[in-house]
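hiii so um. not sure if this is the right channel but i have a protein structure encoded as tokens and i wanna go backwards to a sequence. like what aa goes where. can anyone help
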């Protein structure tokens, strides 16, 4: 079965795979066990942390504005609107509101 050569990263992947395999073959049995158990332990901790997220209460974020305090400030209309249109905008909308 012929291998297709049109994958741009295939050559780099194969080179890395062969290099890693060559490096792993030079390890002793004890070193291989240590690596396998170490990676398995890291994987176990990550899995337990992800599972624990379902049982932990959600983290409460602080709001930028305090929730219990009332903010006293007057509602300002846009000053540039009055300067540009000479209250035409407000008069027009008051007529629509008054007429229905």
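sure thing!! here u go:
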């Amino acid at each position: 079965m012929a291998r297709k050569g049109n994958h741009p990263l295939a050559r780099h992947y194969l080179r890395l795979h062969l290099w890693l395999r060559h490096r792993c073959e030079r390890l002793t049995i004890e070193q291989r066990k240590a690596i396998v158990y170490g990676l398995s332990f890291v994987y176990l901790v990550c899995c337990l942390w992800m599972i624990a997220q379902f049982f932990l209460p959600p983290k409460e974020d602080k709001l930028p504005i305090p929730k219990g305090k009332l903010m006293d400030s007057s509602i300002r209309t846009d000053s540039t609107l009055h300067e540009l249109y000479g209250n035409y905008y407000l008069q027009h909308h008051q007529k629509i509101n008054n007429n229905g």
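oh and The chain has four helices and no strands.
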